[in-house]
Amino acid sequence: MFEPVIGIEVHVQLKTESKLFCPCSTRFDAPPNSNTCPVCLGLPGALPVLNKKAIEYGIKTSLALNCRVTESSRFDRKNYFYPDLSKNYQITQNAFPIGADGYIDVVVDGTERRVRIKRVHLEEDAGKSVHEGGTITGAAYSLEDYNRAGVPLLEIVSEPDIRSPKEAYEYLLMLRRILLYLGVSDCKMEEGSLRCDVNISIRPKGSDKFGTQVELKNLNSFRAVERSLEYEVRRQSDVVANGGEVVRETRHWDEASQVTVSMRLKERAEDYRYFPEPDLPKLKIEKAWVEEVKTTLPELPGARRMRFISDYELPQYDAALLTDTRELADYFEAAVREYDGSAKTVSNWIMGELLRLMNATGTEIGEVKVSPGDLADMLKMIDKGTISGKIAKTVFEEMFAEGKSPEVIVKEKGLVQIADEDELLRIVDQVIGENQEVADEIKAGKDKAIGFLVGQVMKLTRGRANPKMVNELLRQRLSQ
Amino acid sequence: MRLNELKAHELLPMIRRKEVSVEEVVAAILHRISAIDSKIRAYITVAGEEALKKAKEADARLAGGEPARPLEGLPVAIKDNICTQGLRTTAASRFLEGFTPFYDATVVERLKDKGAIIIGKTNLDEFAMGSSTENSAMFPTRNPWDLKRVPGGSSGGSAASVIAGEAVCALGSDTGGSIRQPASFCGIVGLKPSYGLVSRYGLIGYASSMDHIGPMTRDVRDCALILGAIAGYDSKDSQSYPGELPDYTECLVPDIKGMKVGVPKEYLDEGLSGTVRDAFMKALDKLEELGAKVVEVSMPSLKHSLAAYYVISSAEASSNLARFDGVRYGYRATGSDDSMTMMAMSRGEGFGPEVKRRIVLGTYVLSAENYDKYFGEALRVRSLVTRDFREVFEVCDCLVGPTSPTVAFEAGEKTRDPLEMYLSDVYTVPPNLAGIPGVSIPCGFDEEGMPIGLQIMARQYNEEALLRAAYAFEQATEFHKRNPEIEKYTKEPAGGEMSV
């Protein structure tokens, strides 16, 4: 049996206003080459000036990933020629990354696994090439857009600690969750603000040696990462099982046919001729600054999940779901604060009705019109018997669609529960009168049929009757 | 009196007092250029029309009662590797022959803000790589003292323009001696400030960790004046020095009694020519006569500095010049099928041989297998040189030595052997490695009338000590008053005559 050894490199664009080394905007959808200046265009004589906010985000992320923040850091040049790289070198951090030696804990199938983080470093993004007619070598011409050139990137490199495709998937989910909690990146794969490259090798289970590594590219979703790894594990296992050898290469994930295809052989590592960036001074990160950034760290998803379990006595499943995003967790906690009943009730309503409606309408939690206070008010109305639980679902749908408070909706639509005994008795008698045969059967001992009569009452009252009272009144009448 | 032989500190008060109009000054300079520059070839681009327009505007403002700005009406030449908005900036390379920046270098912006008028862009060795201005892709510049000889380099055009009266002051750049050596060859004052004192923003990068911009002037007072105008913190250069700066003209006191002047014995080796040695020894006598205490010091690391310099500068150059690929601007080769080939061909056709030599050298020393052997070793030498200077400046106020081992050599004399050309920088390179200031001032002439330069060096950011020593020496000597006989090169009157 073989086990996969997987390491993941993630590049995320930082959500700073301006680029890493110039004041140009980082906006994603601007017209081509409109967010450019002499610095990011690599014009003669232009010099980089470091964006302090990007450093702060680097420190923040390093801390959240349990990394050691490098006190004496610096930038290096990575030299290679490509038309979208305006200076034909990338300013990056090679020798002294801003963060190193961290980890994140990931839950896979109910078990917690620790994935170590090797390094976290800052670098500038390249521009974008559009090759007219396909590839760079076959193109009639290429167009270059340098809006992206110089956008700050954080590269997060894991140790080869991941042991299954599923674990890779969970690692990425947790990493993205953390970055979103920190608010340092949008992490939108479709806009390229989160990109990942994966390295995978296989080895006999129990071995501590590493096999030949294959790099996977063109991974456009976390699912693609998982699927491509599943494919690679099968492919590499087959190669070895049939007496072959895995070749060191880069393979391309073909989403349509769900296979990896060989792109190029990697016979030797490329020589990027790294050297210290002479246009920038050394990057000194004072301890005091790190401490200051530490105070701005939000409670991270793992810790929050644990707290939800212990403080609100929520099941593991609820806690994981509610802490998936910071906004959802905040929503939950705000509703719990406003409500005097059990947190589990709030959780049920959020996981049931709220998430259902959000999914059905494609609404983000930030856009939801129901305030946590309104949700709490509605739950209180159920508790007081003002509305039934069933009616509440209708009320909530209305709240979700219109953003009105539950009181207004209940009043406008006349949804107040009928709990007046005389009024209910009148309806109960009417139903018994109209269904004499069923009433006789119940009297004769067929107790189950009472449900039918309850249903008839509810129908007549359009669900507004208090079901408990209806049940009692029916039994009272039929036992006479 | 000739307008174009006036120093800035003489000319500016005359403009302020309206004894002469800015237009007259600029016209005199332009006349001089048209009369003699076909022989000297100091300029790649002359911005005559624009300069006259600015001159008229200045005169109108002054006539309207506006106060004169500190450099109002001063005609300045700019080395053509310093970006000027709307004015072609070529770095004397075929690659940038058609490049016009839409931004000013910080130094240019500062000069313009203070009222200086840009006369034109001066010739240099391509991308400032060279010591004779013969590596210019445009044409070589000649030494105004003797047209058979080179003006030095790489700021040869700036040096020649100043001594020939084609500009009152000029800016040069200095990565390993490119201001000081041509200043020495042309008999003017050239100062390389401390690293970070003057913003590099807009200077086309050669070796970022050693690139400097500095003044090239006819005397020390003008040098202090221009330095003051361009120095100071600039947020666009991350290596810029953030400290407060003195008024450099205030340290021009001709008194160096008790000043401790060190002479590194490594500067007096066998490569030093006899006449330069004699002139230097006489300069030492003069300094002692003025009350300075001259002491011999030893800096053993200096003998490795030239090698370290060429390794580091070529390494940085190979990366800095990578941006010249024909994709966004500059020369683009035709006849390629894809963009990678286009980039390679553009570089192959756009760069001259010396630039290519240094790119190859720099790429080699940075490669993974050679990095530590060459680049790493050079960085270690660099830190030793820096340490040696620091130690010496604990006992000395300044250091002196010859600027160059020889006077200006003949054109073509050293072009066949790059190593011999590199040796011309042997005395000027150490201050660039250490980031300390150095100035070259005239200290004599050889038997054929060619100028000889004295280099003075001081602790980082102590330009005051440097200028004070330079000023005291200059005021006690007459070398800076001598002018080449430009008139012999032209049948016409050389221009600029006026009566005051």
Give a structural overview.
The complex is a heterodimer of chains A (480) and B (500). Chain A is built from 15 helices and 16 strands. Chain A is an alpha+beta fold and 480 residues long. Chain A has 3 domains: 7-207 and 266-291, no CATH class; 299-412, no CATH class; 421-478, Arc Repressor Mutant, subunit A. The mean pLDDT of chain A is 93. Chain B is α/β, with parallel strands linked by helices. Chain B has a single domain, classed as Alpha-Beta Complex (Amidase signature (AS) enzymes). Helix content of chain B is 37%, strand content 12%. In chain B, helix 2 (22-40) packs antiparallel against helix 3 (48-63), helix 9 crosses helix 11 and helix 9 packs across helix 12. The radius of gyration of chain B is 21 Å and the shape is globular. Classes of the chains: A alpha+beta (480), B alpha/beta (500). Chain A binds chain B through residues 38, 41-50, 77, 79, 81-83, 86-89, 136-139, 142, 144, 146, 271, 273-275, 278-281, and chain B through 82-83, 89, 91, 96, 99, 101-103, 105, 200-205, 207-209, 235-239, 315-316, 318-319, 322-325, 327-329, 337-340, 343-344, 363, 366-368, 371, 375.
A few lines on this structure:
The complex is a heterodimer of chains A (480) and B (500). With 480 residues, chain A is an alpha+beta fold.
Descriptive labels:
heterodimer, A: 480 residues, alpha+beta, Arc Repressor Mutant, subunit A, 3 domains, three-stranded antiparallel beta sheet, 15 helices, 20% strand, B: 500 residues, alpha/beta, Amidase signature (AS) enzymes, eleven-stranded mixed beta sheet, globular
What is the fold's blueprint, element by element?
The complex is a heterodimer of chains A (480) and B (500).
Chain A: E1 2-13, H1 52-64, E2 68-69, E3 72-73, E4 76-79, E5 89-92, E6 99-108, E7 111-124, E8 128-132, E9 141-145, E10 152-158, H2 165-182, E11 194-204, E12 214-217, H3 222-241, E13 249-254, E14 259-265, E15 275-276, E16 283-284, H4 287-295, H5 301-312, H6 316-322, H7 326-338, H8 343-361, H9 372-384, H10 389-402, H11 406-412, H12 421-434, H13 436-443, H14 450-460, H15 467-478
Parallel strand pairs in A: 12-13
Antiparallel strand pairs in A: 1-10, 1-11, 2-6, 3-16, 4-5, 4-15, 6-7, 7-10, 8-9, 11-12, 13-14
Helix pairs in contact in A: 2-3, 5-6, 7-9, 9-10, 12-14, 12-15, 14-15
Chain B: H1 8-16, H2 22-40, E1 43-46, H3 48-63, E2 75-79, H4 106-113, E3 117-122, H5 156-163, E4 169-174, H6 180-186, E5 189-192, E6 212-217, H7 220-230, E7 260-264, H8 274-289, E8 293-297, H9 305-320, H10 339-350, H11 353-366, H12 371-395, E9 398-402, H13 418-423, H14 429-434, E10 438-445, E11 451-458, H15 463-475
Helix pairs in contact in B: 2-3, 5-6, 7-15, 9-11, 9-12
